[in-house]
């Protein structure tokens, strides 16, 4: 073999060897990519599913019904309902206590006061399908009284609900929600001029009609005659 032919054969051999190595490297690279892709797909599948069909690390929730809080108590997602007042009937009747000089002006009467959902839970059963009624008044106490004018002097009568005593304090928060100042437990003192609302429970009476309020001041040593007056409300 001549020198030129030998030289050509050596070049061809080297080029062939290089090509074989290049193809081998390509094949190895392709296998590696396929293996890595398979591992990645398996990992994604296992991490994206968990028993029950929810994603791992997340919590599924539902609306409505009840649940259990962390302390073991039962919770409810029922919406909170605020108190509301739809109608106030105008009364506008004023009278004076002839002995003490106190003036009382009955402004209005709300036969139906819609309680908040919290109050409904507390008093709904005792109301037996009835409602809460409110009376609005302005009181001008004289300078001479020695006892405060208290809410229990005002008794409400509506049908079978006769001489119902006030229960304002339990509904004070509901009343304040709709801008109604509740009659205070301590009453009205001498020389005060105030506007207040009084609340009454009307069991078994969903729509009170034919209602009247009776004001009674008991007799005392200072004012021995006492005083009573009744005002028709609706």
Structure description:
- Mean pLDDT is 77; it is low at 1-16 and 22-69.
- Strands 3, 4, 5, 6 and 9 form a five-stranded antiparallel sheet that branches.
- Helix content is 27%, strand content 30%.
- By secondary structure, it is of the alpha+beta class.
- Strand 4 and strand 5 (103-114) form a beta hairpin.
- The chain is built from three helices and eleven strands.
- It has helices at residues 3-48, 117-127, 172-177; strands at 66-68, 74-76, 84-85, 89-96, 103-114, 131-140, 154-158, 161-164, 193-202, 211-217, 227-232.
- The protein has two domains: 1-45; 84-232, Immunoglobulin-like.
SSE layout and pairing:
Blueprint lengths: L2 H46 L17 E3 L5 E3 L7 E2 L3 E8 L6 E12 L2 H11 L3 E10 L13 E5 L2 E4 L7 H6 L15 E10 L8 E7 L9 E6 L2
Antiparallel strand pairs: 1-2, 3-5, 4-5, 5-6, 6-9, 7-8, 7-10, 10-11
Q: Key terms for this structure?
A:
234 residues; alpha+beta; Immunoglobulin-like; 5-stranded antiparallel β-sheet; 3 helices; 11 strands; 27% helix; globular; disordered N terminus
Helix/strand-derived class? alpha+beta
Would you tell me the overall average pLDDT? Answer: 77
CATH fold group of the largest domain:
Immunoglobulin-like
The first-level CATH class of the largest domain is given as Mainly Beta
Approximate shape = globular
The whole-angstrom Rg is 43 Å
**What is the ordering of alpha helices and beta strands?**
HEEEEEHEEEHEEE
Number of strands: 11
In short:
This protein is of the alpha+beta class and 234 residues long. It has helices at residues 3-48, 117-127, 172-177; strands spanning 66-68, 74-76, 84-85, 89-96, 103-114, 131-140, 154-158, 161-164, 193-202, 211-217, 227-232.
